[in-house]
Design goal:
It is elongated, with a radius of gyration of 14 Å. The relative contact order is 0.16. The longest helix is centred in the middle third of the chain and has 15 residues, at 24-38. It is of the alpha+beta class and 71 residues long. It is built from three helices and two strands. It is 41% helix and 17% strand. It has a two-stranded antiparallel sheet.
Length: 71
């Protein structure tokens, strides 16, 4: 699984590893999540707010508390 804000491409680097690039949409979601947390929202409130605003989760499901716990 790729980290939030990053994705692997089919392209390989010189060492035979898949190239990792930024995912602008996911980076925007991370920035929004951090802003909401800085505003004092609970993890549950962050998940609800981001779902209401149309941000998808990494795997396309609904937001859950454990997804935001490491932020």
């Amino acid at each position: 699984r790729d980290a939030l804000g990053w994705r692997r491409t089919a392209e390989m680097d010189a060492d035979g590893r898949r190239v990792v690039v930024e995912d602008a949409g996911e980076l925007a979601a991370v920035a929004r999540l951090r802003a909401l947390r800085a505003d004092g929202l609970s993890l549950r409130e962050i998940a609800a707010t981001m779902t209401d605003e149309g941000y998808p989760t990494k795997r396309g499901g609904s937001g859950r508390r454990r997804r935001c716990a490491g932020c």
